[in-house]
Design brief:
By secondary structure, the protein is an alpha/beta fold. The chain has 24 helices and 28 strands. 38% of the residues lie in helices and 20% in strands. This is CoA-binding protein.
Length: 699
């Protein structure tokens, strides 16, 4: 683990490239350090100036008569390597390289970056950047701003990590507008050395940080990221909210199997972030909208929300939003109803959402809000107010701010006003109540808090390791396929059986007579499939016939299948005669080797329409037992499997077991780029299921 304390809490800072030229980055960074109220000592380094902004300058970092904890480097890319070498000789404990002109500009810059990285490694200096925006530590104990932005944020309990300097600059501006305070802000740029995992490890232990915000474009080491973030969100119970940029995967269409065609990078990132316990959001403003809530309140006890409004339509909108987000809008307790009757007009309906009616004054509204906060059936309140001549919005905001101090329940204030909303934001924030322009925003924030609460309380399960597997048999099968693109179906089945994944009984035959004998042993109805290296998708070339009921039909279909293959000059390795599966629910279970995450597992409703409905869930391997069940529950098909409308319940336990077994298989044998079990037909509870088709694409 890298020691990042000298980076974030340095006692001495050298700005190498501090400039006297107004408007230059070297001038702005040095000025920002001075203006931020930095509690340590800062030294400008500029061989062409005696002083910078009134502070004595030094020709080189080697000339500074003090130990240096942090060097901020703002010089041309070509001389950065030499400057880092000087820092190493000086014994500098950490370095930020703000300079650009490295791998972001192409091959020449990448080579330069490698040279800089090599020097930093030689002297064991933790290096942030290059091509980064800098860091901020807003703690009163440090007050350091090494960025070239225009804003020094207030101190707060939110940390912001960004890969993009431009996003970071925008975030600082928004933080000021939203009255959001930061503990730490860091832009890590090209991450030649320090990456998101190093920063997360530091923030995990940082006592000033309660909430972590991330802007990511890629991941350095996904498995390490998973381990660290699960620890932060589970053991330390610090929520992480993230924007993951880059949502498309042009190569998705080129994949040769169903799983490959569905597993676009964004779907996998979604699944991966779920496994991390990270809450993904779409926009920068959402990061702050939701972070304010996490930074302000304890997590709600449950998902029951009370809604209050002085305009019926707004209450309906909030209730709809709550229902869509999976929140409950409960009936108020009898005690609450009695309280409300005392100060509501006789014509008021005492329901949730509660409409205190348009003629409500401050007292009626605030007394009603108190009643909701005191209700044992309510875990959080969405407080809506529309402009009214009966009470000023700013006064409503003040009263909400006052009473909030007496309750431990989260309050999400949506006070709809275009008249100086900044004043309303500041009034509410005095009591750490987040302001939302519209009720749906507050509902979304609450829903994320509930989701995180449930994550922290989930049962913890391990990665299940199955010992009843035949690894040597799998090795022998794979060894036969050197130079081939995919396994023949029978060998795919044998690999599944080696990992105790049930397969519908079958025989491999080489003549019509053998086929008739096999069908008799298997019992009708049966399925015929061609076995050929020329055929991957059998249905498209007439290479499969299902539901063959008797001997005569079998003879006919056998001949047609052979003829279909000969017409195309396909070489036949054999014919697979398989027992026709009884009717059940067709699912798909698959795996894909992703270029970022390695092996990824998939589950969904199967059959030929899987790519039409795309009702699938993903997880990065290896998967835990709880993840296997969550995958099943995330699909719309779960309702069918779980017995919708008092229907049959199916063997969900068997599906979960097969998911875990396939996950173990592809982790232990990294030879497969794609695996499809489609369909895996599942039957009623305790009756299991069978793989009825298996496709293994070799890597």
């Amino acid at each position: 683990m890298k020691n990042l304390l000298p980076l974030f809490s340095p006692k001495t800072v050298a700005v190498i490239g501090a400039s006297t030229k107004k408007g230059s980055i070297g001038n702005i960074v040095f000025s920002n350090i001075l203006l931020s109220g930095y509690t340590g000592v800062v030294y400008p380094v500029n061989p062409n100036a005696k002083s910078v902004l009134g502070v004595k300058s030094f020709p080189s970092v080697l000339d500074i008569p003090d130990e240096i904890d942090l060097a901020v480097i703002i010089v041309p890319a070509a001389i950065v390597k030499n400057v880092v070498k000087d820092c190493g000789k000086k014994g500098v404990k950490s370095v930020i390289i703000i300079s650009a002109g490295f791998k972001e500009i192409g091959e020449k810059g990448a080579l330069l970056e490698e040279e800089v990285k090599k020097v930093a490694k030689e002297y064991n200096i933790p290096l942030l950047g290059p091509n980064c925006f800098g860091i901020i530590n807003a703690s009163p104990k440090v007050r350091l701003n090494t960025t070239f932005g225009r804003v020094m944020p207030d101190f707060g309990n939110i940390a912001f990590i960004t890969q993009s300097g431009a996003v970071g600059a925008t975030a600082l501006e928004l933080a000021t507008a939203y009255k959001v305070g930061f503990s730490i802000f860091v832009s890590f740029g090209n991450k030649a050395d320090i990456n998101e995992n190093d920063l997360l490890l530091y923030l995990k232990e940082d006592e000033d940080t309660k909430v972590i915000l991330l802007y990511l474009e890629d991941l350095t080491s996904p498995q390490e990221f998973l381990k660290i973030t699960r620890e932060i969100t589970t053991d330390y119970k610090k929520p992480i909210l993230a924007i993951k940029a880059g949502r498309t995967e042009a190569g998705q269409k080129a994949a040769s199997s169903h799983t490959g065609a569905l597993a676009g990078s964004d779907e996998i990132y979604n699944a991966f972030l779920e496994q991390c316990g990270i809450l993904r959001v779409e926009k920068i403003e959402d990061l702050f909208n939701y972070a304010k809530a996490f930074a302000s309140f304890p997590l709600p006890k449950g998902r029951r929300v009370g809604i209050i409004t002085n305009a019926g339509g707004i209450g309906v909108m909030a209730a709809d939003a709550a229902a869509l987000k999976g929140l409950e809008v409960p009936k108020f307790s009898k005690e609450t109803e009695e309280k409300l009757r005392k100060f509501l007009p006789p014509n008021a309906n005492i329901n949730n959402p509660l409409d205190v009616i348009g003629d409500a004054d401050e007292e009626r509204y605030i007394n009603s809000l108190k009643a909701l906060l005191e209700d044992e059936n309510v875990d959080a309140v969405i407080a809506n107010w529309t402009p009214s001549i009966m009470a000023e919005t700013r006064n409503i905001a003040k009263r909400i701010s006052e009473i909030a101090l007496h309750y431990q329940k989260p309050i999400f204030a949506s006070l709809l006003t275009l008249s100086n909303p900044q004043e309303i934001i500041e009034i509410l924030w005095e009591s750490k109540i987040p302001y939302y322009s519209f009720p749906e925003e507050g509902v979304s924030a609450l829903a994320l808090m509930v989701k995180f609460k449930e994550w922290t309380e989930r049962p913890l399960t391990e990665i299940r390791k199955f010992d009843d597997v035949e690894r040597e048999k799998v090795k022998e099968i794979i060894a036969k396929y050197k130079g081939k693109k995919f396994l023949l179906e029978p060998d795919g089945y044998e690999i599944l059986k080696s990992y105790n994944i049930p397969v519908m009984p079958y025989r491999v035959v080489n003549s019509q007579e053998e086929c008739l004998a096999a069908a008799e042993k298997l019992t009708y109805p049966v399925v015929l499939k061609v076995i050929s290296f020329d055929v991957l998708h059998k249905t498209e070339v007439g290479g499969v016939f299902t539901d063959i009921e008797n001997e005569e039909e079998l003879k006919e279909k056998y001949q047609i299948l052979i003829t279909n293959m000969k017409k195309r000059n396909y070489q036949i390795e054999g014919i697979l005669c398989q027992k026709m599966a009884e009717r059940g629910v067709e699912t798909i279970i698959g795996a894909k080797k992703d270029k970022v995450f390695g092996q990824v597992i998939m589950f969904g409703l199967g059959g030929i329409y899987v790519e039409v409905f795309k009702d699938v869930a993903f997880r990065v391997c290896p998967i835990r037992e709880l993840s296997a069940y969550h995958m099943i529950q995330e699909t719309k098909g779960y309702q069918i499997l779980n017995g919708i409308r008092k229907g049959k319940k199916y063997s969900i336990d068997k599906i979960a077991e097969v998911l875990m077994r396939l996950s173990q298989l592809v982790c232990e044998f990294d030879n497969f780029s794609e695996v499809d079990i489609n369909p895996f037909i599942v039957y009623e509870e305790n009756k299991g299921g069978y793989a009825c088709d298996a496709r293994f694409i070799l890597y």
